[in-house]
Write a structure and sequence with these properties.
Distance between the termini: 47 Å
Structural class: alpha+beta
Radius of gyration: 29 Å
Number of helices: 8
Length: 483
């Protein structure tokens, strides 16, 4: 479909929205609360529009940084269950710890019997809500003059690195259509919030618990509160030592983490397990710089090989290995190659939130997350409250509920109206499930000191950049007999 045809399609869609909102309401069908104030709205075109500058070229290049992360690698499954129960067989008790009890000459005598033990885990929804600014119906059609063009084309992408944004947000029309622009803004906010919650979410903040809270020790039965150490994750502390520094050895720590988790999977009959290694992009850059040399010379310290021995290091091979890791996003651990996912939602320590770090020093965690077990059964995945299941009840409103859903029912949209003004609202109830925490692990407090920190997609982060204006001044040079 050509750009012109696409633009015409969306203009017709916007027109249909306005027509639906301007229809005369029958008795008893009054609409909802008054939308937000107009003072915060940023018009696209017309007086004060941010794209109304004279001589503006058609192509507009984005400088917006998108989040990235693990979510796009996780299945998103529908559900309507509020309190799911996930069982783990934790083991079998011994009838007696003395082996001699079982080696008897009286064949018909009883011996102590053991018991099977289990642990039941659960998950919790987090309800996310995002609103648009209030839209005056006049604003969707106003142009300053014939030189105010609405055929601008966006170069770049605003959404889509995480799989966390609603598909009804068409970023290509953020420059020309007011309604589309507001819906894209809502999609951006949704993606940012979910990206952080995937790792940092806590029930104390009405969020679903993120992976940092679930990849943990202290697992317990949801119904009794009984501790289930067999379901605990493997959690290690790097104690703010620098990756590749003279302190703790990152090869030893990652190697032991992988070996411990692999041993669990093999001993429990859950192999093959599909793992991913997840960390912040800045940490990955520093780790990949030192890994080839550290990995290929592990345990080659002088105390091991002798003071008179030498380790020969080929610089070209190390650089080639480093480049291979970065280009393919893979890391070799104990002879196995693992995919690496960089995720901007993982919490990062700095000298502002952690007094033990100096300026330009950062610290965060490295995770090993099992995606599937036994060659395909998902054990780390997302669930959403399926709004499609409300269709039978919604049908009783006879079309008077101004709401719809997208993305197979994972996002619910609605329109509020007061006279000729309207706004959009978006909600989604999602949760993140880790069915096998005993196959997951993390290394906390790994310190790194990059030459330059990357730009952040989080507006609350000191490395977030935007700038520019949300409202331009109107033309104050007009002259007329009636002014």
């Amino acid at each position: 479909m050509s750009y012109e045809a696409k633009l015409m399609e969306l203009l017709e869609k916007q027109t249909s929205i306005m027509e639906a909102l301007s229809e005369e309401k029958a008795a008893g069908e009054s609409v909802t609360k008054t939308p937000a104030a107009f003072s915060t709205y940023a018009p696209l075109h017309g007086p004060g529009g941010i794209w109304t500058g004279p001589g503006l070229e058609r192509d507009v290049i984005t400088a917006h940084v998108r989040p990235r992360g693990i979510a796009s690698a996780l299945p998103l499954l529908p559900t309507v269950d509020v309190n799911p129960q996930f069982g783990i067989l934790t083991g079998f008790t011994a009838g007696d710890t003395d082996d001699s009890t079982y080696w008897v000459t009286a064949h018909c005598a009883d011996v102590p019997a053991g018991y099977v033990k289990s642990c039941t885990l659960t998950a919790q929804f987090g309800a996310l809500r995002v609103d648009s600014q209030t839209i005056d119906m006049d604003d969707v059609m106003l142009k300053l003059h014939r030189g105010d063009f609405t055929d601008l084309m966006l170069q770049g992408e605003l959404l889509g690195l995480t799989g966390l944004n609603p598909s009804d947000t068409d970023a290509n029309d953020v420059l020309n259509l007011v309604s589309a622009s507001e819906m894209v803004q809502m999609g951006v906010q949704t993606e940012r919030l979910l990206n952080r919650a995937m790792w940092q979410g806590t029930v104390a903040n009405n969020q679903f618990p993120g992976l940092a809270a679930q990849v943990a020790t202290g697992q317990m039965d949801v119904n009794t509160g009984t501790l289930c150490p067999a379901a605990d994750s493997d959690v290690k502390d790097f104690a703010l030592d620098e990756v590749g520094g003279s302190g703790r050895d990152i090869v030893e720590y990652l190697g032991m983490l992988e070996f411990y988790l692999r041993y669990n999977a093999e001993s429990m009959g859950l192999d093959p397990v599909q793992y991913v290694v997840v960390m912040r992009p800045e940490l990955w850059f520093e780790l990949s710089s030192v890994w080839p040399c550290a990995y290929n010379t592990s345990r080659c310290a002088p105390s091991v090989i002798g003071d008179n021995s030498r380790v020969v290091i080929d610089g070209r091979e190390n650089v080639a290995e480093r480049d291979r890791m970065r280009q393919g996003n893979t890391i070799d651990i104990n002879g196995r190659a693992y995919p690496v996912i960089t995720d901007t939602g993982i919490f990062e320590h700095n000298n502002i939130n952690n007094a033990n770090l100096n300026p330009a020093q950062f610290a965060s965690s490295i995770f090993m997350i099992p995606l599937t077990i036994n060659g395909g059964l998902p054990v780390t995945f997302r669930q959403y409250l399926d709004y499609r299941q409300a269709q039978r009840d919604v049908s009783f409103t006879r079309g008077n509920l101004h709401a719809w859903w997208t993305d197979n029912g994972s996002y619910a949209w609605s329109i509020e109206q007061t006279k000729w003004c309207y706004k959009f609202s978006l909600k989604s109830q999602q949760r993140l499930i880790l069915r096998a925490p005993h196959l997951a692990g993390r290394i906390d407090s790994v310190m790194y000191e990059p030459l330059q920190h990357l730009r952040s997609p989080d507006p609350n982060d000191p490395y977030f950049l935007d700038g520019g204006v949300s409202l331009r001044g109107t033309d104050a040079t007009r002259n007329a007999v009636w002014l």
